[in-house]
Task: structure prediction
Amino acid sequence: MRIAVIDRDLCTREKCGYVCEKVCPVNRMGKECVVTEEEGRYPVISEQLCIGCGICVKKCPMSCISIINLKEEIGSPLYQYGVNAFRIHGMPLPKDGVTGLVGKNGIGKTTSLRILTKQLRPNFGSTKRKKISDEDLMAKFTMEQRRYWEALGSTAKASYKPQNVEQIRGVFDGTAAELLRKFDEGRKDEVIGKFQLEKILGRKLSQLSGGEMQKLAIAVAYMKNADIYFFDEPTNYLDIAERMKIAVLLKEFGEKKKVMLAEHDLAILDYASDYVYLFWGDENVYGVVSNVKNVRGGINEYLSGFLKDENIKFREREIVFSRFSEGERKKPPKFSYSPMKKAYNGFALSCDGGDVREGEIVGIVGRNALGKSTFVKMLAGVEKPDEGEGGQFKVSYKPQYIKAEEGVTVEQLLSAKDLNASVLNECRRRLDVNRLLLKELDELSGGELQRVAITLALSREADIYLLDEPSAFLDIEQRLNLGDLLRAIFSDSGKSAFVVDHDVVFVDAIASRLVVFDGEQSSRGHASAPLKKRDGMNAFLKLVDVSMRRDKDSNRPRINKPGSVLDREQKESGSYYYGEN
Ligand code: SF4
Result:
């Protein structure tokens, strides 16, 4: 079985002279393997005639063709977006409790949620315009799928929180209170309290931060009177305490309602879910949904890259967690900065002085609105402190919010002369940026833009690298790859970095010491000096009232259930953190 996908955003059609048609050996034998469609003039590859030689993939100047020779039998797709386009095989079904969806970006999780909420109608791989009849749909469904499809819209109602909350701003111009009123079915006051929305009610959606918009979108979906609730990536923009709160709310909600959750923060997904479906395949080419699995075993199978029940190895390498967190570096300080103060818009920030050592990554953790980004900007010299001095060193800075320039391709951006060629090549390869080179920046997804911005920041020549929320929009595998890359770059070069992030698993994997922020959100913040990892993690987890342990098989960090025996014991002994360093 073979899959051929052409990325039509990249394909230039006649401009390249249809190289694929000319080089295809099947075409050269007189058959019509690659032809040009009449409407649109895009090339079309016949998956039946293609022999999977890969010549067109190598010769295409735009790198827009993917040919996959499948080792496993995966059957017909449930939904295919068009000729030579992405397709999803299989359908996750909501179970009682919380069902998590685990997988990379571009592998079909959002497509599945759109099918389950009937925004997309299965076409079973047919690319004809005529929609499949109800009779055919029912005949092709399995018994369970048929039951679900028939119930939804008649006896069962669905509520959906979309992945991209920015879309809501695009279609609604009022205040948060007006949005809640619009969708209120009797639980408005309850969700305002539960999601602590009181302070933002009078503000227009355009004035809300990413985190405030995310909480509002979750609250709207949560508030509806439905039977099945779908939450697509609910933790983007939220800090760890807010993530934990959402996870607890969803878990409690799952005791009464069916909840489905697509999420990349492994610790949060693990905590909130009872069951998981694993998604595997090739990014933007095809996705396959596994059988349903219990959460602990399922996540461990995902990390191992091998599906036991299905007997399928879907990834060559295993994702491994060490029993030991990244340890403290014994090198002498390389750079130091003085205590700093800064006041603005009714907010006061004070920072203890500190230093960074050769080859060290210092993690910066804390709740939102405590001044983390301002601290980073003062270190970077982008903002001047009222008292004290940031560092006198050359800084490369990746901001939290990345602006995509119009009309500039990734290749143009990365061809700047002052970049370190060997770091650039390493980042391009390990962050899978090479296949994005011909795309324009404003066409990239959030995760793609993030990988390009990280590549650019790491490739600049500097003494200190400041990365503000590099894991945002990255999937589980990309986060772990990025962790490996950062450790390799900084320990080899002897250069140093500060990294702000809310994903505890990611921070734990990369940082040797931690700067911990405390204070009162939006009024005063305080940054500690870099603390030993164990002390910093304990202080931080105590502030957000979360305790963690390691999984005994995979060593991955797991959040303890609040109030459980382990949670109480760890908190009483002050060991909020599982670390061994
Ligand atoms: Fe032709 Fe298929 Fe080979 Fe491409 S991979 S050149 S379409 S036979």
Remarks:
- The first strand starts at residue 2 and ends at 6.
- The mean pLDDT is 91.
- The pocket of iron/sulfur cluster is lined by residues 23-26, 33-34, 45, 50-56, 67 (CB under 6 Å).
